[in-house]
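Structure, all four chains, one model.
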Amino acid sequence: MALDTVIYPQDQFGVWGYDYLIQEEKSLCGFLESNNLFPNHEQAASVHANNWDYCSSSSVMQNHNSCYDMKDHWGTISSPDDCTGGGSGGGGGGDQMISSELESPHCNMMMESHVGAALTTNTVASAGRRKRRRTKSGKNKEELENQRMTHITVERNRRKQMNEYLAVIRSLMPPSYVQRGDQASIIGGAINFVKELEQQLQTLEVQKRAMHQQPNSVNGYSPPPLPFGEFFTFPQYSMKSANEVSGNGGGSVAVADNRPLAMAEIEVTMVESHANLKILSKKRYRQLLKIVAGLQCLWLTILHLNVTTVDQMVLYSLSVKLEDGCQLSTVDEIADAVNCLLGRIEEEAL
Amino acid sequence: MALDTVIYPQDQFGVWGYDYLIQEEKSLCGFLESNNLFPNHEQAASVHANNWDYCSSSSVMQNHNSCYDMKDHWGTISSPDDCTGGGSGGGGGGDQMISSELESPHCNMMMESHVGAALTTNTVASAGRRKRRRTKSGKNKEELENQRMTHITVERNRRKQMNEYLAVIRSLMPPSYVQRGDQASIIGGAINFVKELEQQLQTLEVQKRAMHQQPNSVNGYSPPPLPFGEFFTFPQYSMKSANEVSGNGGGSVAVADNRPLAMAEIEVTMVESHANLKILSKKRYRQLLKIVAGLQCLWLTILHLNVTTVDQMVLYSLSVKLEDGCQLSTVDEIADAVNCLLGRIEEEAL
DNA sequence: ACGAACACGTGTATGC
DNA sequence: GCATACACGTGTTCGT
């Protein structure tokens, strides 16, 4: 039923996750052991099976506890009586339950424990004072019980998802990073792994740059929260002076000045017929598409392009080749052209 | 003190991990030995004060804790002593707690709720017999209470550690990977990030290699039929697919026969709503432009894009986000769409 | 009100 | 035993 169906749309890691299966296998064992207690558990298990492993493959899943919990619970639904009132008490209604125990010695059990899960339901729960609630709670009772179940299910899914992600990320790194299978260590290992990867990346880039003599555009997004701080050295256009553009969310900037307004942080460097462009602008609708098209119109062929999105800002760093028919010859001309292009994009995006 | 110190030995991120050292100085000081020595829980309570504030430095916060925190929440205060007896009930000794509650009206609160799921056993509740256990339990009671507290503390530390790791790994990636602060999404984002980093690494290495071998480009990368031979692992589409379908063990390539002609080497991987595309095709007129446009039409937003040109081949490696209206949901569907898109581009380029 | 996400204390399995 | 780690159901809190 709807309750247990999984909410998370995405999951789906398909391929990986094999190690996770191991875990489940274990639980399977547990499940089997406990079986004998429940003659009919199998159907319950099968029923729940679909919803719990939403993501496909896995099959067995979950431990026995949950299985029979559910079963019990569902079984009990038929007779919802009052017991829930006492047991579910949980949140705001905690008081009620307390009182109940005070007065009625036999109502005791609930407490117990367990109320927990579904069992509490069957425990009788005393009658006492709460009758006035009766009227209202009578309807709410199962209502409430229902939403408790959804709560449980949701929570269960959350955990499951978590584990799947962990399994995935674990499968992505070399096992040396995970020594203990512990889930904290997994993400601890992931931390190391990421750091290692970034370091390697940096190394390679430096090598390449050294090799190439000329600074290149391909640097990945860097870890610092504001990666773009040192990214520009001498931009032809800078937002610093013209903050209002981004500030007010872009009014009519069109052709206000004879001196064109900076649409973005733009820096162009050139060597022979190759140019490097760095453009930091805010996200605009279809901007990338239009930039690519616009550059092509300017007889600039894109050799290398890197797009990095951070929040509402996008950093395009690209290296282009000035084709034979290109009218532009200096960095300033190119910067002007790009700024103008961005201006048109802004206009059209309004 | 020992109780709260963090137990996890592994953390230690070696070289990089300097930041963690800050958090709890994991005193190796014999945690085990000392803890059970506690005569009574009050010390324990004081102890807990420090460890509970998980968020770094800070100190005090949550003082009310101790075992009676529950009480505080619910406002149902009562003399703490007896309630502990009841509350601890937990594990095997669940019975005790039951009895205690029966007798002492004011100790009420704890009860409930949690006791956890499994204890079905006690539900029975009958009152009678449990008191004589006293003699034995009398000693064990606080003993047991004590170790319950350590359990709680340990568990609390576990969670805390988890969160710290999550915070760390989150701080390592660009915020675009974490849209929701949700802890599942964090590690989901980490998955994407790791994949992206690896991809970039591969790209750079390939570039470097190509750069090195520039002179003899003809047979330079000829050993593999395709220049970026090792770049793809399980491509949905492959240029050599005609004969080699079986070659790449591919569960995913299964339906290769009735599948449209491969326009390029295409590999799609997916996590949540993020997909990584690798496309290796020959250069075609305006191809990049059309790819960008085409993806936008498919409700795929380009988050990261990397273009590498080698000779007459181009490698696009991009990470895209599936927007809400996107019809595509599986890697195969995306691969199909991309292949189809390339087909149209090829047509138009003729 | 309602849902989504967490923190909590507990039960329980696994390893020494 | 006892330490560790996970799953569970629940309470609570925070956006909407």
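Residues 67, 69-70, 87, 89-91, 113-119, 148, 151-152, 155-156, 159, 163, 180-184 of chain B lie near DNA strand C (CB under 10 Å from a C1').
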